[in-house]
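[job 0412] stage=fold_complex status=start
inputs:
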Amino acid sequence: MRHGVARFVTGFLALPVGLYLFYVVWPFLQAAGYSLTDWGGYSDRQQFVGLENYLRLFTDELIRKAFWHNVFFLVTVPLCTIALALFLAFLLNVGGREDKAGIRGVFGSGLYKVIFFFPQVLSLVVIAVMWQQIYRADGQGLVNGVLMKIGLVAEDDPITFMYDPEPFLGVPAVLWWLLLIAVWSGAGFYMVLFSAAMQSIPKDIYEAAILDGAGRFHTFFRITLPLLRDTVSVAWVYLGFIALDMFALVYIMTPSQGGPNHASEIFASVIHFNAFQKGQFGYACAIAVALAIFTILLAAFQLKITRRERIEY
Amino acid sequence: MPVTPELDRRTLLRRAAAAGLLVTPAAGLLSACAGSTPSQNNANTGEKSNDNPFGVQENSAVKVVIFNGGLGDAWAKEDQAIFTAKHQSVTVNMSSTQKIKTEEQPKMATTPSDVVMNSGADMMDISTLVNEGAIEPLDDLLAAPAWDGAGTVADSLLPGTVADGSFQGKFYVVNIAYTVWGNWYNSALFSKQGWEPPKTFDDFFALAPKIKATGMAPYVYDAVHGYYPRWALMATIWKSAGKQAVIDIDNLKENAWRAEGVLSALQAWEKLVKDKLVLPGKLDHTQSQQAWLDGKAAFIQVGTWLKNEMAATIPPGFEMKISDYWGLGATDKAPNDVYAGAGEGIVVPSKAPNKAAAKEFLRAVLSKAGSAKFAELTKSLASTSGSGDNVQDSALASANELMKNAPKDLVSVKFWNFYADLDKESQNLSEELMAGRITAAQFVDKMQAAADKVAKDSSITKQTRDA
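[job 0412] stage=fold_complex status=done
writing structure:
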């Protein structure tokens, strides 16, 4: 019996696993192999250079910059997105007034749900191109145009958004503007995710809390948030991917793909520069492998600190 | 009975999440690095003759990839017609794209196209192609008889075309479009206001207050692509410090950026920014060109493809003319040298299956008939001399005029083709200077530091230029 099941499962899995090994795992191994060479990417000539590429990583100023920019996103993207999504989900599900029908969301919450979810159906490239127009750095930009009309921004001194490397709280302004887009485009999806999780929390728990005199603040922090722990930790992991990527936004929106003057450089843009502009695929592969190792360590860390007993209801 | 009783749901989820976390951000990047195995080089050639100098084999096929950018691809179809008129049995498979590197780079090590127009924002790095031996030297094309005219192909080309396509002493890149760079202005407006297009920065600084008085910004530039303002900065450096100074810069000579005349050239630009003569805001190339067409700024610097690029939105009565880049005046070492050269390069990959037909196709592209069609269709000069003789156009005419009075030496800068690091650094610093965030002196210091770093880096293949 058991033997038959194994054969049945193997039959189904052989093809997808084969494809996965060939198109995903094999390129990974190849990349790891190339990271030990000086391959340029346009020929079949390559020399084994050992760990030289990896040693170079530690002295590369650009990598150091990119690392800290990625760390910035790694901290802020999940934090801001989850906070905003939780706030919206709370308002839409349990934030409204209480009456005979029990706990409900604010008026029109169904409509808001659709509106907030909307960025999720747009491709990231479309989002980037759209925000280019919003962020356009002269009077024809959406933000600048409106602010100039109402006199908050001087005609001859528009906000320069993607072209602004001036540090705000120690981080170049361009990164904050990119963060805003990442949070805007991500919050809707996680709001829906948290909404679904909130709806599975029994209403009588809230009713009991309200009878005991708990306000919105307490119901959120004492009941909703602890019961959403699993969902939030999943969201955190996913948002970690997005924060380590960010390539599309940086590549499409920033000047010189990582500019101005390296102010928005991230791992992915440094890899792209080394591989495709500088023709140093070997070194680029070494950066990519280092990024993969960094990601594994991060995954281990995240999963360790979010491990906890599940509450059944 | 569960299949895997030792795996509970949570463990499975946790493992799946860990695997996903590992895979997602790195997947695209890692797999982008994956290469492929090489294939054998096959040379199939037929009989060589004066009329068929490369021995194109009958009934063969040649694959041509055209960059479909500012110049379009209509001109290439004319060349195809010229080619097939002579070689009726040869099939030309022509395609056009804007994604040259994305589509062609993966094929370079195995089975590339025969003719690749390597141009646009998504182009393959030329010095890498040369260093890796990925493209074919085309010196035999230069020595071959011209398609329709006396002498060799080399004889029929405009000055600079061979030099611009040569690397390490060999000719690799056939640049088909001849471009002149300079400062553009609306000649209709200038004659109405009685303004003279300036020749030097001093003239410009004298004219600027008058322009500003009409509510117009004197200058606008591309704040997105650093290589736009860089053309202008380097042209001023060439005029001020002379040809040898730029050659030294390209050759990474010690303290080349500190040569006399370099700093003063950059200081003129620093003053232009400090005096707030630039249109406020940060625009890209087409946005800034449109702002100029809309009369928001008096001058913009760009190449002769401008007219074709903006053809759809040129206001009626707007008469675009090009004038030479501004120098500093009496101290200039090469005040009249014009920034011009051949661009839009076509290469033949070393592993191309039908190299004979590829070279023959290029011979057709450089023919008199083909280049005349090119100038007619693109409103841009071709690298073959005499291409623009029959084209009527104010922009093209002013470029012709500029070339007629130009000395033999053309402004040409190589370091950004030689070294990707210096390319990036110089683009970034050009934008920083134009944004007023660094001074001319800081520009010089940082470029010198970057050049020294490249000079010391043994992993970077060095290139030199003599002239």
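[job 0412] summary: Residues 181-339+413-456 of chain B form a domain with the D-Maltodextrin-Binding Protein; domain 2 fold (CATH 3.40.190.10).
[job 0412] exit 0
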